[in-house]
Amino acid sequence: MEKTLKQQVGNCLKIVMFGPESTGKTTLAKQLAAHYKTEWVPEYMRSYLQEKWDNEMETISKDDLLPIAQGQIASENSATKRANGMLFCDTNLLELQVYCEYYYNGWCPREIKEATGNMVYDLYFLTGIDIPWQKDDLRDRPLDRSTIFRSFENSLKARNLPFIVLKGTKEERLHQATAEIHKRFRI
């Protein structure tokens, strides 16, 4: 199991879009990858759970957590090989851990917790909740956005990880993100 949750080292900066559901992470990851002409890693949990919903009309269970983690890491490792200097990750295993602990009263599989402690990212963009929540088959917590946002922010602070909170329209967020990348990494 642990080998399948091992992050590959690459010759690229790894930047994570991080935060609650429906806060523009996917949009921003795509925008940044297009702007910098590089790769982005889709959120594996979304495609996995959408397929489960479409086929079985069921939502996430504890049995889904490790397959989701394995799929996310496999996708990231594959994209790391193709990245052109930077890789933009639409979430990572720490996001999965935060959601596990939120939905399962502090519980998360040991393998995921251990894996998150060994992963390295250069920067996190914590996406604010100032944009409208949009309903879909998988989103279920429109009224918990503030609480969930604080959980994400606290997880970054507790680990002393580098992060910037992004707010505003998708254009404003892209501008904030590129300005921060240029400032931090002189790109």
Can you tell me about this structure?
The protein is of the alpha/beta class and about 190 residues long. It is about 50% helix and about 10% strand. It has helices at about 25-35, 45-55, 65-80, 95-105, 110-115, 145-160, 170-185, and strands at about 15-20, 40, 85-90, 125, 165. It is globular, with a radius of gyration of 16 Å. The model has no long low-confidence stretch (mean pLDDT about 90). GO terms for molecular function: ATP binding. It comes from Rasiella rasia. This is ATP-binding protein. Keywords: ATP-binding, Nucleotide-binding.
User: What is the overall shape?
Assistant: globular
Residue stretches low in confidence (pLDDT < 50, at least 5 long) are none
Count of DSSP H/I helices:
7
The helical percent reads 40-55%
Question: What tags apply to this protein structure?
Answer:
alpha/beta; Rossmann fold; five-stranded parallel beta sheet; ATP-binding; NAD_biosynth-regulator; ATP-binding protein
SSE blueprint:
Elements: E1 13-18, H1 25-36, E2 39-41, H2 44-56, H3 65-82, E3 86-90, H4 93-103, H5 110-117, E4 123-127, H6 145-158, E5 163-166, H7 170-185
Parallel strand pairs: 1-3, 1-4, 2-3, 4-5
Helix pairs in contact: 1-7, 4-5, 4-6
Domain NadR/Ttd14 AAA: 14-173
Keywords: ATP-binding, Nucleotide-binding
Organism: Rasiella rasia
